[in-house]
Amino acid sequence: MKLARQGWHRPLWHACVGAGVAAAAFGCSHAPPAGLPTAQPSSDAAVATTAIAPAAAAALRDWARDLARQHCGTCHIASLPSAKPAALAIFNLDAPNWSSTLSPQRLRAGFTRRLNGKLDEAGQLRLREFVDSEIASR
Length: 138
Prior knowledge:
With 138 residues, this protein is an all-alpha fold. Helix content is 62%, strand content 0%. The chain has helices at 2-29, 54-76, 85-90, 104-116, 121-136. Helix 4 packs antiparallel against helix 5 (121-136). It is globular, with a radius of gyration of 25 Å. The relative contact order is 0.12. Mean pLDDT is 78; it is low at 20-49.
């Protein structure tokens, strides 16, 4: 009886493993549907080096400053009594070159993460364009 049970389980086990391998191979072999965004590079070295026109970069920087004023201003505007020294050390929205103190890592991580949730898809794309432009200009 024990041999009969082993004989029954082995083909079932092989069929399950085969199905799992086939599913994994199929899942890895097809291209993503058209129109879906692809993953963004995680390192600064992978950022595209095509710089945008200075006027367009300035407009993006002003847009990002206005956005940050709305959502981060209480801590990051030195002229307000609610400003926090630790926040001002990261970036100060009162400074003319406010974004220059944001490291590439902070631009990609904290700054983007805090603002993305407040934006629609078009705004998120524009924020990504700002971040890429800032990093490329350094």
